[in-house]
Specification:
This protein is mostly helical. It has one domain. It contains six helices and no strands. Helix 1 packs across helix 2, helix 1 packs across helix 3 and helix 2 crosses helix 3. About 20% of the residues are buried.
């Protein structure tokens, strides 16, 4: 069980009022919904998404996680889904599952890094003292470890803290 989100101001109670029929269709409609979501709760949602991601101690590019989560929320909002904090957290969790699978698949296929990924993997490589071209492989392996081991590695190597292995949550 995860600890509750602390220090985060939730968005206004209840669903955000978003028109499910913005002008245009397809990408323009999703963009309109996304702009409304950001205007009405963006800072709180960004903080909640960042905290949920931190709680999971996963080795994925944070910007990619946030953008995927927000895009999923915009899409689901168009379909009439929940736009409360709980709805966003479900979108973050679903995005994390997708991105973990995509990361492993890209590594297995030997696909090149995307722009946002390159900066993240270079950072991981520099902090961990490994060659940049092996950073995604290391992240895939780390993401397969139990939570406590991932968190210990993250705190000790990437954040520079002394740490001990926590038990699985």
């Amino acid at each position: 069980m995860l600890a509750p989100l602390q220090g985060i101001e939730p968005p206004p109670p209840g669903p955000v009022e978003v028109s499910l029929s913005p002008p245009g269709s397809g990408t323009r409609a999703l963009r309109a919904v996304l702009e409304r979501l950001l205007a009405q709760g963006g800072a709180a949602w960004r903080a909640a998404a960042r905290e949920r991601f931190r709680q999971r101690s996963l080795f994925l590019p944070p910007r990619t996680v946030f953008l995927r989560s927000l895009a999923r929320l915009a899409y689901e909002t168009r379909l009439g889904a929940d736009t409360t904090l709980a709805g966003l957290l479900r979108c973050v969790d679903a995005s994390l599952r997708e991105l973990l699978a995509e990361q492993a698949g890209a590594e297995a296929a030997g696909a090149p890094y995307g722009h946002d990924e390159a900066a993240f993997y270079e950072h991981v490589a520099a902090r961990a003292g490994i060659p940049p071209e092996t950073a995604r492989r290391a992240c895939v392996a780390l993401n397969r470890l139990p939570f406590g081991e991932r968190r210990a590695f993250q705190r000790a190597v990437l954040e520079g803290h002394e740490t001990h292995v926590e038990t699985e949550r």
